[in-house]
Design a protein that fits this description.
0% strand
């Protein structure tokens, strides 16, 4: 006698990809979260960070800019950035409600998607508070850095949300690449995080404070910028290694085309030439040892990946 093993008969959760309309809502959240980072950058480079000098009001006694504000056009730039927060909240609420509507109508149980769908709303509300604190402390560099880093965490969650919603099941899934490739991928993520954090330190010590009256970090901006650039070169070396490993990893369905790999494998020499240019620039050479080590490691990793790829590449015939 046949046994019915359908999910309904054994009380297993129903799985499946999110419907197209909901995936588009998730994409809208991702795009909007990236957009507010861009508008925040515009606020900074135009010196409009204190265009609305208080919070939650724009100016004492008014939630919106007033015609007689001393901040001039800067008040409109900063208020425009604040206004975008309202759009983010609407999109975030739509995403969260949409998940529960999908769950009720289809019976699908996707905990990862549900929890990730809550991140845009929670993150946006937290960003509003952090942004207000940033204004109240006169754009202290560490507050500004926290403001950006929180946005990037929300963006990362939105990327995961878009990806997982298009798949039929939640993680952990079945591994589709070799362990070495996954380890290198995790290393790329870690180096990317270092680059982002160092970038906030570069900005905190550089000239673009968001307002001319804002104090800066007591660090040498040239040295910090230089070290930041060298970690980027390390990232490039790791990325080249990843391209090579993906090319020879026949278990991966996302193998880069040979032309891309060939261009990447020519990067080691380019890394060394770029390093020479940077180290011979106005940044000076007195602090070059750590930076040379980082970029040299990136170049050596890329060269090793090229050698490894050549050994594993199937021979002709």
């Amino acid at each position: 006698m046949a046994v019915d093993t359908a999910p309904e008969s054994v009380n297993l959760p129903v799985t499946g990809a999110a419907p197209g309309w909901l995936q588009r809502v998730f994409w809208a959240n991702l795009i909007a979260q990236v957009a507010i980072i861009i508008t925040g950058g515009i606020v900074r480079v135009t010196g409009s960070g204190l265009g609305c000098p208080t919070w939650p009001e724009c100016v004492d006694g008014s939630l919106t800019p007033t015609a007689n504000q001393a901040e001039g056009v800067h008040r409109l730039v900063e208020f425009g950035n604040r206004t975008l927060t309202g759009v983010l909240i609407v999109l975030a609420v739509t995403a969260l409600v949409g998940v529960f509507v999908w769950r009720r109508n289809s019976g699908v149980r996707r905990p990862w998607v549900t929890w990730l769908a809550a991140v845009p709303l929670v993150g946006t509300l937290a960003q509003a508070v952090v942004g207000g604190i940033t204004v109240l402390v006169d754009l202290h560099p560490m507050a500004v850095a926290s403001h950006l880093l929180l946005s990037l965490v929300v963006v990362a969650a939105c990327v995961a949300l878009v990806q997982f919603a298009a798949e039929a099941v939640d993680p952990p899934g079945v591994a589709i690449t070799r362990p070495t490739t996954r380890v290198l991928g995790n290393a790329l993520i870690a180096v990317t995080a270092v680059i982002v954090v160092m970038g906030t330190v570069v900005t905190g010590s550089g000239p673009h404070a968001g307002d001319a009256r804002t104090a800066r970090l007591d660090l040498d901006p040239r040295l910090i910028s230089w070290l930041h650039a060298d970690v980027v070169l390390l990232f490039i070396g790791l990325l080249v290694g990843m391209l090579a490993l993906l090319h020879v990893d026949t278990s991966s369905p996302h193998r880069p085309p040979p032309r891309v790999v060939g261009s990447g494998l020519r990067c080691p020499a380019g890394l060394h030439r770029l390093r020479a240019v940077l180290h011979g620039s106005a940044l000076g050479t007195r602090h070059s040892a750590p930076a040379r080590g980082l970029t040299g490691l990136g170049g050596r990793l890329a060269a090793a990946a090229e050698s490894h790829a050549a050994r594993l590449r199937p021979s002709a015939g």
